[in-house]
Design a protein that fits this description.
Radius of gyration: 34 Å
Number of helices: 18
Strand order of the largest sheet: 8-7-6-5-1-2-3-4-11
Strand content: 5-15%
Number of strands: 11
Structural class: alpha/beta
Helix content: 55-70%
Oligomer: single chain
Length: about 650
């Protein structure tokens, strides 16, 4: 089995539309408005097409995106007036239309005027919508609040917001002013279409009143040489751009080539854990592909409940499979990297042990130790031309020692050339962000965004491609077509507790126990080795002192006995500290104590999260549950950042 670790995302651009109601568009030139909306939508489409075209020119094995076209999505609330008009223009230009409704279709339709109701229902009757998600609030005692929640959810699902707006301030929740301000807070690219011009929001400005003219630049999309249009194109390109050049691109291309191997011969780390943590020997590494896929049974069932078979399949192929592969790549390369540094330390100790074997041969007399009092062959005898056994033994041990040292260098070279540590950390980072992301999707929530996760500036340079891959992957997942009820929210909480928190708790509890035992027992064995070397040396010194004080008549016999003890004492004095140092090095690089403490900290944080989820279960609200899911995702991401800090500086070296 050799599945690829990388699943190329499909380039996806999501555009949200909002704007005034019909009464606020009085006096606007409809033809001019249509022209401006078309110009903006075409500009966005051409920009996305340009990125896709550049991607298609690349070797398929190096292209960041898939080469089977791209997605253009228009997210809309289907409100009367400018929003309906912009949605219709997007449909004409090839955008797929995705609606987010503040209530179920029939309830929302009843709030509309007769003429507006017919236009609204036409989207459903003619099946013009790719998806339509309804927020099930039941009766709408506060229409504005329901619109605000739907609008904020739309903003969370878009990369660009097109606002048809006259610039006047309205304090009503869910108004165009409110949505533009939310888009500013979220860092969304905003394009403002007024009655006489198109403007873009300058994101580098601090957050201001949405109508503050200093925060906006006029854009003429009909001119080819236009600085503001070029800046807007650059912003759109930055949303879709693949991995940055340099170390990040090299790391991405290396990761893209990786294949999952169901079994691996890198079992040495497992062997050390089995011996020192007193666990059943596990032999060769076996990936947990089937186990991982089965662990999402509840999540996939919930996805089917709120979005049908299509949404379930989307979550399975676009999120579950990417997580499974990232998790198992991390497992595969973690064992390679760990087994490599364990091998380096143990081989270093073995080199010392082999090099000292020559101590058991007499270098001065050229005969075995037991005949040390004899003499070398006399000149002129048949044995004169032969090597003394001591020299021959030393030559043989030197050859073996050099071979062992060469093996250490070779393991290090292969591990660094093939980026074992880097791939391990990349796979683990992806897995720890992708896995909890499903909690957002099973309540039809928002995908990954910078503002909801740990600061990406803490990533190392070669890891800079990871946020792009996560965002591009999650952006590809469509919204479900259904209403998310209170019961659905409660089911999602049960899944978060069972499949995410309880599973992570079991993992960290198991990890804490194993690493704590491993660290303690390695320390004990290190001390035993050093203590044994000290004891052997002490015994030898005591014997030497006793002989030096013995009578001359008995000294020769005792000296011969001490001489026969010299080589074993020297060997033990060299090998035992080397073994102890090797085990200490394994303990140092593995940093098992810090890792166990991190698992203990995670257990505490998981317990607090579980308590918050249980409290939320009795009266779940979308916004508070969404924030709680974001908190969970952030904690899991923070965990991997700490692991990165622990292990990023522990590169594989000949000295391990």
């Amino acid at each position: 089995m050799t599945e690829s670790a990388f699943i190329a995302p499909k380039l996806t651009m999501r555009v949200g539309v909002t704007g005034h109601l019909p009464k606020d568009l009085a006096g606007w030139n409809e033809e001019r408005l249509r022209q401006k909306i078309d110009e903006v939508l075409k500009f966005v489409k051409m920009t996305a097409a340009g990125v896709q075209s550049e991607n298609n020119f690349l070797d398929p094995k190096k292209a960041p995106y898939g080469q089977d076209g791209f997605n253009l999505r228009c997210m809309t609330l289907l409100r009367p007036g400018a929003t309906q008009f912009a949605s219709e223009r997007a449909e004409c230009l090839g955008y797929s239309i995705h609606a987010i409704l503040p209530a179920k279709q029939n309830l929302y339709s009843e709030l509309l005027a007769d003429g507006d109701r017919a236009a609204f229902n036409d989207w459903f009757e003619r099946k013009r919508l790719q998806s339509h998600l309804a927020l099930d609030h039941g009766p709408l005692p506060n229409n504005d609040e329901a619109l605000r929640r739907a609008g904020y959810l739309m903003i969370a699902h878009v990369d660009v917001l097109i606002a048809v707006w006259d610039g006047s301030i309205c304090s009503r929740p869910g108004s165009t002013t409110d949505l533009v301000a939310e888009a500013q807070r979220r860092g969304v690219e905003i394009i403002w279409i007024s009655s006489d011009e198109v403007q873009r929001y300058k994101a580098e400005n601090p957050l201001d009143d949405p109508s503050n003219r200093a925060a906006w630049d006029a854009v003429d999309l009909t001119e080819t040489d236009n600085t503001s249009a070029d800046e807007m194109r650059q912003n759109l390109n930055s949303i879709l751009a693949g991995p940055p050049d340099g170390k990040a691109l090299k790391s991405f291309l290396a990761f893209r080539k990786l294949k999952l191997r169901n079994r691996s011969c890198a079992f040495l780390y497992n062997a050390v854990v089995s011996v020192f943590a007193l666990r059943r020997p596990s032999g060769r590494l076996k990936l947990r592909l089937a186990e991982n896929r089965e662990s999402w049974a509840g999540s996939l069932k919930q996805a089917r409940s709120i979005g049908g078979d299509a949404y379930q399949e989307s979550l399975r192929t676009l999120l579950l499979e990417r997580w499974v592969r990232a998790d198992n790549i991390a497992l595969q390369y973690a064992h390679k990297f760990r087994s490599a540094y364990v091998a380096n330390f143990l081989l270093a100790a073995l080199a010392v042990a082999v090099g000292l074997i020559a101590m058991f041969f007499s270098h001065s007399k050229g005969v075995p130790l037991l005949n040390a009092m004899g003499v070398c062959p006399e000149p002129g005898t048949a044995f004169e031309s032969k090597y003394c056994s001591g020299l021959l033994a030393k030559s043989a041990t030197v050859v073996l020692e050099l071979l062992i040292l060469a093996a250490i260098v070779l393991i290090t070279f292969i591990g660094r050339q093939r980026r074992w540590q880097e791939h391990c950390m990349a796979g683990r980072s992806l897995a720890e962000i992708l896995r909890p992301s499903r909690l957002h999707f099973i309540i039809a929530g928002a995908p990954y965004r910078r503002s909801t996760h740990t600061d990406e500036s803490s990533l190392q340079e070669h890891q800079a491609w990871l946020p792009w891959y996560v965002r591009a992957s999650l952006r590809e997942i469509e919204l479900p077509t259904d209403a998310v009820s209170q019961k659905d929210l409660q089911n999602a909480i049960d899944i978060a507790i069972d499949e995410e928190l309880n599973a992570q708790e079991a993992y960290h509890e198991r990890t804490r126990k194993v690493l704590k035992a491993l660290d303690h027992r390695l320390e004990i064995v290190c001390l035993i080795c050093l203590g044994a070397a000290f004891l052997v040396g002490g015994i030898y010194l005591v014997e030497f002192v006793q002989i030096s004080q013995a009578k001359p008549s008995a000294a020769w016999t005792e000296y011969e006995s001490l001489y026969s003890w010299k080589a074993p004492a020297t060997y033990a004095g060299g090998v035992l500290p080397a073994v102890g140092a090797a085990l200490f090095g394994i303990r140092l690089i593995g940093d098992f104590k810090s890792a166990a403490r991190q698992s203990e900290r995670m257990l505490g944080r998981i317990d607090k999260l579980r308590s918050r989820y249980r409290n939320e279960w009795y009266s779940p609200a979308r916004l508070s549950l969404r924030e709680l899911n974001a908190r969970t995702t952030m904690i899991m991401a923070d965990d991997i950042l700490i692991w990165n800090m622990i292990f990023s500086e522990r590169e594989l070296t000949p000295g391990a």
